[in-house]
């Protein structure tokens, strides 16, 4: 009887021990599971003001690029400027051999004097004939003939004077001058080169760089958007255009802002775009005709959804973000974005809503669809990284 009682007590003790061991193991397992949940920074989407730039490749030209061409043929005898020189209107650029044109002027002047003498002689003859005709000494036929001769001599004089003017003009053309203020471009012809009005290549180009025209093309979609906002009026589109910036070839932003002044009324069927011209002041002469850059046209939105680019992943040209549910489960969400960005953020047009929570750390590396995480703030994440560095 005593042995049976002892066996019962022993059995009870064993049950208590096993139960305690089981509970302890379960507790450790739960604690271990809780400790193994990864922490990731999570942000809540709020409406933001979007200020991004549409970018358009552009070419830079002077407001007036004048090709300098000779009006007469001859050898260049003097080069008065060099490439890159700043010139004023009327300043001599080239001198073409003037000898033959000076001789032509001398011949024309002589012809004028001969014609003047002929007019004077014919005038005396006509006056004499007129007096004789009044006394009926000669016939009206002789008088008319004398008057016709005078008219012919006057015509000869007018022709000689015209030839003199033409010769003097040709002589003046031997000094090729600048028609505008500007900067000299490339000079392909030097002293000794034979030039003529029929040549295809100009002597040089003078660019008026006081202000610069920057040309770029706007695609039909962007153009349609702007046109709808202004009820289809071209002037309305131009009035609504904000000031634009110019990104130079070295990546820097030009100090002066420009204004869009013209918009082509015809869309090029080959490219599907319209030509646009912006004007930039160029007080320091930094911009050069023939250069290139990128026009930055700002686009603003007062209620945009903006997320960091690092919070997205890309698969087969599709972009995804990871939202966090109320139970801290990560879910993949496909999103669409505007084609413009600042290199750090995206403007989301669909796929996310105000108030959604998204993961902004570990995206594309360790975060997976359906995993459980412990959401923390960006400040907490930064503090943990700082602690890790300090260790």
Task: Please render the helix and strand layout as text.
Blueprint: H1 2-35, E1 39-44, E2 48-68, E3 74-79, E4 86-87, E5 92-96, H2 99-134, H3 140-173, E6 175-177, E7 182-184, E8 194-195, E9 204-219, H4 220-229, H5 234-240, E10 245-247, E11 259-263, E12 273-281, E13 292-308, E14 312-315, E15 318-324, E16 330-337, E17 345-350, E18 357-359, E19 374-376, H6 378-390
Parallel strand pairs: 1-19
Antiparallel strand pairs: 1-18, 2-9, 2-13, 3-5, 3-8, 4-7, 5-6, 7-9, 9-12, 10-13, 11-12, 13-17, 14-15, 15-16, 16-17
Helix pairs in contact: 2-3
| Distance between the first and last residues' Cα | 66 Å
Estimated structural class: alpha+beta
User: Sheet bearing the most strands, described?
Assistant: 12 strands, antiparallel
Low-confidence stretches: 1-10, 14-35
Tally of helical runs: 6
- Portion of residues in beta strands equals 25-35%
Order of helices and strands: HEEEEEHHEEEEHHEEEEEEEEEEH
Mean pLDDT: 85
Percent helix range: 25-40%
From the alpha carbons, calculate the radius of gyration and give it in angstroms: 45 Å
Q: Which outline best applies? A: elongated
Number of strands: 19
